[in-house]
Amino acid sequence: MDIQINGQKFEDLIARHGRDVLWQESIRCSCINLDSGQPRYGCPICGGTGFVYEPVKTCRALVQSVTTSKDYLAYAGMFEVGDALMSIPANMFLRTPEGSFDRSGREPVPMFNIGAGDVVTLIDDEVKTSEVIMKDTELHGRPADTLLNPKVTKVLSVRMHDPDSATTTLYAAGDDYEVDGATIVWTGNQPTPGAQYSVIYMHRPVYTVYAVLPRPRHQNNQDLPRTVLLRYYPGGVLREHGVHTG
After folding, report:
1. How far is CA 185 from each of CA 124, 148, 177, 182, rounded to the nearest angstrom?
2. Is-contact 53 120, C-beta < 8 A?
3. pLDDT digits (tens, 9 = 90+) for 60-85
4. Model-level pTM?
């Protein structure tokens, strides 16, 4: 039996049941050593990651957890716990200034050209993380007092545990510190320079496109949604200073 898929109906389904995500296209930084394939350590453009990211674009997509259904058995060795599949339509309804859909027309989806290494952020989800950083000290290429995950939504607690005195100092938001993006800005009572302290915070999960699943995506003169495998890395690969703004 020859089953034909209607591309527009698939796009309608994604509009109804999908979610908005932030997409950033990745580009290899020119600092890459062509012999070793390694980026330059401390490169001021990519931060030593080897990738530069284009500005954020908001797109509609369908994100689902990886299943073990027969559709994915051929790629079973590719998946890991925590991976997700994302389907991206070739076209989507026009957007109003308020962000809702205008069903009178459609427009191409920039993210349809997604590729391995691109970054996808889920803007309607949060992940809780506990992390140790050092006061006034750069850590692994990050600015001083800056958390590993860039898309911080809320800092729940900042404290310092002193193993010598067996005491814990809890710092107060607003009085002792403020949060600027992913950076703790100290304003009052604070640890001494170089001291380690702990931060509990919420942040948006950031995924990297691990692979584009090799499936036929053009049928009956229509582009069907493209499916990619997303892999979550705590801390991601994104560095805000590696975003192209020119």
Report:
1. 26, 15, 5, 10
2. no
3. 999 987 554 445 544 545 666 678 89
4. 0.78
